[in-house]
Amino acid sequence: MKTLDELILPHDLRYTRDHEWARVEGDLVRVGITDYAQDQLGDVVYVELPEAGQTFARGEAFGTVESVKAVSELYLPVGGEIVEVNTGLSDAPQLVNEKPYDRGWMVVVRPSDPAEIGGLLDVEAYREHLRGIE
Fold first, then answer.
1. Which residue, among 88, 95, 82, has the nearest Cα to 30 in the 3D structure?
2. Phi and psi at residue 96, to the nearest 5°
3. Domain ranges, residue 26
4. What is the bridge-based pairing of β-strands 107-111 and 44-48?
5. Percentage helix, strand, coil for the chain under 3-state DSSP, each rounded to 5
6. How far apart are CA 94 and CA 96, in angstroms?
7. String of b and e for 65-102 (b: at least 16 CB within 10 Å)?
């Protein structure tokens, strides 16, 4: 397990207390799980994601990640329509471990209320949240 100082936590992302990240890309939001989440899960062996076109509320479960240790729900940081799904994770779920902020992303969402982004944690608030878990 990584220590808090070893975790990769990009400053340009927003975070949830459930360990998802959100990257604003114009009027869309790309979503994945944090370095902390993938580290805690261990080797990811399967990712179940929704189909494009489905709509979810903020905080609603939109998929699951299965590792050798556990199965974990994925929660959407902002409500909206799924416009893109990382289908590459079906054949290469290990990308979630190897590149959680790059090729290991999960979905792209068109937010129904872009203001929800403001309710997410910045990197310092997320780091503080992790200190409370340790």
1. 82
2. -60, -40
3. 4-133
4. unpaired
5. 25, 35, 40
6. 5
7. bebeeeebebbbbbbbebeebbeebeeebebbbeebbe
The domain spanning residue 40 has which CATH number?
A: 2.40.50.100
The tokens 């489905």 sit on which residue?
54
> What are the structure tokens assigned to 116, written together?
């929800």
Helix (H) or strand (E) holding 36: helix 35-41
Tens digits of residue pLDDT in 30-44: 999 999 999 999 999
Residue 134 pLDDT more than 80?
no
pTM of this prediction exceeds 0.85: yes
Total domains in the chain come to 1
Taking only the tens place, the pLDDT of each residue in 43-95 is 999 999 999 999 999 999 999 999 999 999 999 999 999 999 999 999 999 99
Q: Residue holding tokens 């290990």?
A: 94
